[in-house]
Amino acid sequence: MTDQPYPYHDEPAIQQNCLPTYLVIDVSSSMTPHQDALNSALRKLHHALAGSPRVSEFAHISIIAFSTQAWVVIEMTDMDYVPQMPEVRCEGATNYGDAFRRVRERINIDLPALRAQGKAVLRPAMFFLTDGVPTDRNWEKEYASLVDRTWNRRPHVITYGFGGGAERVLGRIATKAAFAAEGGTEQDEALAAALTSMLHSLVASAGAGEMQFPVEVPGYRSIPFEYID
Amino acid sequence: MSADGATWPLPPVVSLSDLGDLGPAVAAGGGQSVGIHALANYPGWLLKKYKTSDANGGVTRLDGLVAFPMTVPDDDRTLLRNHTSWPVARLTGAAGHCLGCVIPVAPATFRAAIPIGGESSERYLEVDWLAKPDDSLRSRGLPVPSPLERRKVCRSIVAVAALLERHRFVYSDWSYSNAFWSTSDLSAYVIDVDGCWVTSVPNVFQPNWDDPLTPRSDRADVYTDRYRVALLVGRCITGLRDRVAMLHKLVVLKDSALGDLLLDILLARERTRRPSTTALLAVLDGLPYFRIPLERKPLPPEPTGVVPVPTVSVRPPAVSSGPAATGTPTPATRVAVGVLVGVFVFIVLVLLVVIFASSG
């Protein structure tokens, strides 16, 4: 798979382009003080996507939450089919490895399903939001498997970090862009800004018919990332 | 003519100082525009500012568009004024360039409240919301148009397209976002028409609106417009946005004349053989389709995958066996350890009995 849509027929122009998008959110216990802000930001994201049919048909979304374990909150879908955004609860550890493993597992399920629906599927995008460092020791193995260059379904990874300590890890995980909240930014604002940035990226992508990566995010600074694509 | 029937009071060429204060932006920039502002001193009118001066043959083109309504019969002029955002003045700068244009505010009849996630927001109702299945509209609490009502809105869109084609204008930018529709009188309002010109214009790229017979690098012409108008009508009539699914639905459309005509436009092997928007308007008016035989490409195969209803889980699944990720022993583990301790104690007791028995 390249960044160009895979043709279903001999006329690529006739297929609907689709960007499978994974929003992976840290719901560990350290996020508990920001649980309300997180749920509010998710509701606004849903409102914006469900309110724009041409964006939601292009950017199909799956939400995966992770703490001690990772689970699929919403399976890959056009947000128009989700009447209301569910509320997540924050508790538990910060298991990056399980999150990466879950994303890889879902990509192998979701991409063939989207192709079977006749869509021209672009390389998936994973937006990763976290407020802290991982608590599991062997997450790198699962991460390496997720971004393995020999796996043609590997996703683009964009990371957003707020709270202390995550910056170096975010730079290691990102493959396209990494952002860390500025020191003076309130974490609730940082959460909202991260999801707004993701939304703008998806709207721009829908307008262009291909992935458009965020370049700058208010309240955040770009951090260098190590991945060479 | 603006929504309240007033005509534009200033000359057809104006400067920023003529317009006075600009009100708040009503729309962000997009395409050739950097933004659209209300005119504080001229309610009912908007200023659309362009990114680059003289974009797309600016001065000549805009002046031609502004003058055009006065050169056509009354019916055409009324259609332009009431169902498009036709420009009424060119914005000029010190060097006489084209910096933008003045357009009317779209009438309020094209606004509607759209409920999303428990909230409701009023906005102009784009045909984006007509090109959706009945179930999707119903689940959102939006009015569900009947097949006849869908047809009426499409007829209104095609009336504008046919007028443009009659006068050799090319629009190119037919899509979900460039037409509003009214739930009260089922008419349509086409916007961004200030990009039109005669014969050909730059081929505007919109994802999922590509004409497969017009390379993106070519200019758009009347045949590109026929394709995109047919695509828009096909999607609105069927409520299906996926092109292949929509084509298959057209085959079994109850109005077979309309289905046949749309399929001819969308599947014609040669783009110059695509039937005209005038023919499309006639069929939408209930007149028969006098088909001139043309060769169609075969229908692409229908996808087999079903769009699933997504499942939602707010909590992680329960862990059924083995130690939890935190290392806390499970009840099963505790029982196993207890059994081992019990066996160990028994063996020690037996050994003690044996030792005492052999020493006694």
Description:
The complex is a heterodimer of chains A (229) and B (360). Chain A has six helices and eight strands; from the N terminus they run E-H-H-E-E-H-E-E-H-E-H-E-H-E. Chain A has helices spanning 35-50, 53-56, 96-116, 139-146, 167-173, 187-208, and strands at residues 16-26, 59-66, 70-77, 119-121, 125-130, 156-161, 177-181, 220-222. In chain A, strands 1, 2, 3, 4, 5, 6, 7 and 8 form an eight-stranded mixed sheet that branches. In chain A, helix 3 (96-116) runs parallel beside helix 4 (139-146). Chain A starts with 15 loop residues before the first strand and ends in a 7-residue tail after the last strand. By secondary structure, chain B is an alpha+beta fold. Chain B folds into two domains: 1-105, 2-Layer Sandwich (Phosphorylase Kinase, domain 1), CATH 3.30.200.20; 110-301, Transferase(Phosphotransferase), domain 1. Chain B has helices spanning 16-19, 58-67, 74-83, 134-139, 147-166, 222-238, 243-251, 256-267, 277-284, 331-359, and strands at 13-14, 22-30, 33-39, 45-50, 89-92, 98-104, 111-116, 119-124, 169-170, 179-181, 188-190, 197-198. In chain B, the strands form four sheets. In chain B, strands 1-5-6-4-3-2 form a six-stranded mixed sheet.
* Pattern of helices and strands of chain B: EHEEEHHEEEEHHEEEEHHHHH
Question: Low-confidence segments of chain A, ≥5 residues, pLDDT <50?
Answer: 4-10
Rounded to the nearest angstrom, the distance between the terminal CA atoms of chain A is 14 Å
**What percent strand of chain A?**
15-25%
Give a quick precis of the structure.
By secondary structure, chain A is α/β, with parallel strands linked by helices.
What keywords describe this structure?
heterodimer; A: alpha/beta; Rossmann fold; B: 360 residues; alpha+beta; Phosphorylase Kinase, domain 1; Transferase(Phosphotransferase), domain 1; six-stranded mixed beta sheet; two-stranded antiparallel sheet
Secondary structure topology:
The complex is a heterodimer of chains A (229) and B (360).
Chain A: E1 16-26, H1 35-50, H2 53-56, E2 59-66, E3 70-77, H3 96-116, E4 119-121, E5 125-130, H4 139-146, E6 156-161, H5 167-173, E7 177-181, H6 187-208, E8 220-222
Parallel strand pairs in A: 1-2, 1-4, 1-5, 5-6, 6-7
Antiparallel strand pairs in A: 2-3, 7-8
Helix pairs in contact in A: 1-6, 3-4
Chain B: E1 13-14, H1 16-19, E2 22-30, E3 33-39, E4 45-50, H2 58-67, H3 74-83, E5 89-92, E6 98-104, E7 111-116, E8 119-124, H4 134-139, H5 147-166, E9 169-170, E10 179-181, E11 188-190, E12 197-198, H6 222-238, H7 243-251, H8 256-267, H9 277-284, H10 331-359
Parallel strand pairs in B: 1-5
Antiparallel strand pairs in B: 2-3, 3-4, 4-6, 5-6, 7-8, 9-12, 10-11
